[in-house]
Amino acid sequence: MLKNFWYACEFSAAVSNKPKQIVMLNQRFVLYRNSQGQVVALKNQCSHRGAALSMGWLEDDCIRCPYHGWKFQSDGQCIEIPSNEPGKPIPTKATINSYSVQEKYGFIWLFYGDLLEEERPPIPPLPEYEDSTMHPIYLEYEMKANYTRVIENALDPAHLYAVHANSFGAGFAQDPTVEDYIVQDEDWGISTKITYKNYTKPKNGVFKSFFRPARTQLNATTSFYLPNITKIESDFGRGKMINYAVHIPVDDNTTISKRIQFRNFFTYSWADSLFVKFHHKVGLEDRVVTESQYPKFIPDMLTEVHVPADALTLAYRRLRHKYLSLGWGLKLNQSESKNSNQEQTRLSYASLKK
Q: Is the pLDDT of residue 142 over 60?
């Protein structure tokens, strides 16, 4: 897991004036909106006896602990302890961590790290959010897998014909070849363009109505933005679909993918449920294989076999290793710490280029 980045931790619509717990990066946070509608993010752990503040209540834009009623401001400072006699000073350690937040592109973004504001990497652009021709749907699902494996699954171009044979990938079986492609470096990320040939009509689902039975061509642009965002843009001639996914590392073995899918065809709102249903079907296909992978963490590069189609996932590993080497890794437990050390000491850049 990486620090010093903005993490999209929840959809904006899911945060209200009722405290809400968010589990991310092996930690618990509490989010709520104050009377001006601004989002506040605090550590979800009272400094007194560790109770979850998300079980408490709001009062004067502050949050009350549900256990002993300690009152905390939005900056984490405790300003009232009901059990104290009047005039009794509040202990200097009676504070909790507070976090910078932004609300953008339909998400609440939380900065986790120790960089000064002017040094922080930017929130990546999601231009389609402002494009009135692109119709969005929102969904999420959970995988019992490490987030690095989930990200690699999203970036992998070679699994479509096998994993998604019963959905949109049916036509790839005729020619599952992935032609050599070039990975481009982006600001805080990577991207590539791949053309899939001999793409035929899917077996079922909403896509069946939008692909010709005869052979056609699918142009796909796949991007990754640090620390955990994937974007897949698919242009199949008769329409365009763009899938953003924020892969939230809940803990070492749990990932929640929060997604916005944009489309410029069949944009009726009543059709959204069809696309959500189909998206979940595709997600379940990915989940089955991703949860089966071992080891759960991305292993040392030298212990796996690589082929040319892996160029994008290997570029992701190099990029991640770059920031681990800068000390931006979160060593929250032994397994993550051990894995990070292995990557830093044994990664072979030569092997990644083969």
A: yes
